Amino acid sequence: MPAPTSEIIKFKRDGLELSKIQISELIEGYTSGNVTDYQMSAFLMAVFFRGMTKKETFFLTQAMLHSGLVIDLSSLEGKKIDKHSTGGVGDKTSLIIGPIVAAAGIIVPMISGRGLGHTGGTLDKLESIPGFSTQLSVVQFKEQLSRLGLSFIGQTKEICPSDKKMYALRDVTGTVECIPLICASIMSKKLAEDIDGLVLDIKVGSGAFMKTIKEARTLAKALAEIARAANKKVTALITDMNQPLGRTIGNSIEVEECLDILKNRGPKDLRDLSIELSAQMILLGGKAKNIATARNVAEEILTSGKALRLFEEVIVAQGGRLPLPKAQRTYAVVSKKSGFVSSIQTETMGLASLLLGAGRKKTEDTVDPTAGITLHYKIGDAIKKGNAVATLHFNGEKPLKEVEKMILGAIEIRLQKPRTPRLILERVGR
Amino acid sequence: MPAPTSEIIKFKRDGLELSKIQISELIEGYTSGNVTDYQMSAFLMAVFFRGMTKKETFFLTQAMLHSGLVIDLSSLEGKKIDKHSTGGVGDKTSLIIGPIVAAAGIIVPMISGRGLGHTGGTLDKLESIPGFSTQLSVVQFKEQLSRLGLSFIGQTKEICPSDKKMYALRDVTGTVECIPLICASIMSKKLAEDIDGLVLDIKVGSGAFMKTIKEARTLAKALAEIARAANKKVTALITDMNQPLGRTIGNSIEVEECLDILKNRGPKDLRDLSIELSAQMILLGGKAKNIATARNVAEEILTSGKALRLFEEVIVAQGGRLPLPKAQRTYAVVSKKSGFVSSIQTETMGLASLLLGAGRKKTEDTVDPTAGITLHYKIGDAIKKGNAVATLHFNGEKPLKEVEKMILGAIEIRLQKPRTPRLILERVGR
Q: Least buried of A62, A298, B168, B358, by fewest C-beta within 10 Å?
């Protein structure tokens, strides 16, 4: 007879290590509805206080993974490598990395999420391309992967249903900020993609979930441990999110910026990070014998336009067509000071973009594909009073004065030139 | 605009002290259904880990108290004093104390609960008296208090509805064992009785919820603090529950034992504790100027038969009639050893009685009024192999072999005579 759920809760509450069977019972019960929301939320809060051992976190990940469909890509030849970012403002690398790595001969099965709060989501960005569909069936997804090596889809109902239920519950019960729960949520979905390896982009800074390098390192290590326990190759980069990545925050304007990069234009930070993440994936996928070679492979694919052509093929394959739409109105936010941009409250920039319609406060909100912010200066740049620090893109009536105030308040201008922040801070694992 | 519930949960989770307003919002919301079970269970688990300050515990008690009806006894002349026991096996003192203290001229408004698990409940015991009703209206309750000074009723739906919901939730979410939650649950119901003072009987030992004197002391102090904050007089006794109180465990057999005490017969431990608790109530009620006098008052009322007559009047007033029913079958459990009874696993004795039908595993179970166990020996008594250590009272088919095994396993017999355990261990407060 299985132990009652209350015994499993007490076990965790009292700091004992749960067995694989106890964790499976709990997650299976929750998925099927036999374990109630109120028991799960008490359990999650106990985990918040007691944490989980490596073993427990791995068992939780496995149980969540097996609560739904696990995609089988074994029929496809070649290594399958994906990237996961913990999310930030202006973080659009998937749209550049996917084409580069696929063009290197690696299968990139990208199952992405939507944006929430100050962070954007890959699905919203892609769907700003007119006609682009992320609602492929698993069969269509595999067919496209076999043909192009790259396919973008959204989380389906069949994949990790327990994660969907648990995340919604965590959101309203104060149990989001908990490393083992974050890890199991991320890794269960990634393992469902049937990948051979994973590159993690752990964001740290004012626009990221992790505010300190120490927290980021803890998360990176915990994620890497699960990947290794699941026999997946893994590399984690800890990267800076103390300013938006690139110059755009929104959806169609971010896609435009990615196209710029693929055309050998666009901001250096976005290009550099995309090359580095691509190189790590190419290395994991066995298409280069060391990281220097892998970087060269990525550079060559980008510079030659191969990645651009592959991305254009993916757009066509998924029903999309260029050019991208533009917002009907723009507004220039003008600097009231001269000096150097010394810091940017990045989360505030994300929230300002949300107020223009580019994001969602609640899961059920809709997103304006063309709204957003173009930033004209980055940390370390000199700016003069009267210059446009940012351009707002929007439709209809929007709280422009409020957004302007937020942006001006978020960008600190000082007389002294600051040190240019490092983009890639650390590499963890492999 | 009130703060969302998730913010209140996070506040407690992060170890901050909740305000009176936050606690009221939470409890009002939970009572009305605006706060969900899953949010409340996450909150309760956070309280389990973070505890509550004295202030928070008092605000929680008040909020739970005001979630329902507060009885108004101000029209009745005289002090209103009640007793609360944390529960044990064979704990039947209410039926003796109520009549003694009421006969001393104090109003005793006894609102009691039902038994659950290994512990019995006053309501179940009283309802084993044929015809006895504990379902009085508040008007009938007050009328009887004014006429006899004593009335027994059950918890009504109107009193502390939030406690009922919270207790049911705690039971299945591993949040029962938590001092501030236990205190608020007990005290909200006691404060709803509109009493002037309260005597607490905190049980400690193998048959009690509190297993160590330290835990018992912590609970006693926490309860006394709430009573004082609510301007109620309070005395707490910490008393032994390392063996059943008296010799009977069940319902009608426990009532019979109480009648024995009221007739100046019956076991010494039950008589001594009843006198002491009565004396403490008489002292709080201002009917004696010191505890020695109060003990004399209680002794005189018991010895003279006044308490017996008052109890008989209460039985008649509440529709009951004697004699008590008896079980159809009995079975003697015979000792396989000679020596001295040196310890009794008291909780096991309660569970054995439950298997005979005297208790309930779940709230909705019914109770056999006549079933139970009579213990023929107490700790320190000499016993011979072949003597009946206990008599089982039951009806129909019962797992007699299992019960016999439990009882023999629960009673430790050694060659050396043990020290007789002290009954009243400590007094806390006033």
A: B168
Each residue of A161-188: b (16+ CB within 10 Å) or e?
bbbbbbbebbebbbbbebbbbbbbbbbb
- What pLDDT sits at residue A1? 45
pTM of the model: 0.89
Average pLDDT, integer, range A194-200:
97
Domain spanning A81-317, CATH architecture: 3-Layer(aba) Sandwich (3.40)
What pLDDT does residue B80 have?
98
Q: What is the mean pLDDT of residues A271-276?
A: 98
Residues of B with catalytic annotation? 84, 163, 170, 185, 189
Do domains B81-317 and B329-414 share one topology? The answer is no
Per-residue pLDDT band for A120 (boundaries 50, 70, 90) equals confident
Q: Is the pLDDT reported for residue A97 higher than 70?
A: yes
Q: Domain coordinates of chain A in residue numbers?
A: 5-51, 81-317, 329-414
* B352: closest CA of chain A, how far (Å): 22
Angle, helix B94-103 to helix B291-303, in steps of 10 degrees: 100
Respond yes or no on whether ipTM tops 0.90.
no
Q: In this complex, do A44 and B42 lie within 8 Å of one another by their Cβ atoms?
A: yes
Q: How far is A135 from chain B (nearest CA, A)?
A: 32
Residue B122 has pLDDT above 50, yes or no: yes
- Whether the pLDDT of residue A298 is over 80: the answer is yes
Tell me the chain B residues in contact with residue A48 when contact means C-beta distances shorter than 8 Å. Answer: 13, 46
Judged by CB atoms closer than 8 Å, whether chains meet at A40 and B45 is answered as no
